Amino acid sequence: MVKWDEAYRAEGLTIIQLYSSCFDTMEKLREHAKKQGIAFPVALDPGGQTMKKYLRRPSFPVRYLVGADGKVAREWEPGSGVKPEDMESAIQEQLARRKK
Q: What share of the chain is helix, strand, coil (3-state, %, to 5)?
């Protein structure tokens, strides 16, 4: 995701990563993000409350691609076998739609 953030941020891609149980403080999460080279926003979601409220299938680590219209355009669940190149193609498709 760091690679996609670097490649597509200027075109309008925004990545937000929610963590519900990996870290118990924002300080630890910020340290992790810094070590991983994550420049996009990260947030703690204790107990998964945000995911439960807003996402269709709140589980971890689901990835959602939200289109420019604010709706979920694609959803990838753990074990779905999706390849990174397929996810990147979906990102490119949504960015192209945004330009129209």
A: 45, 15, 40
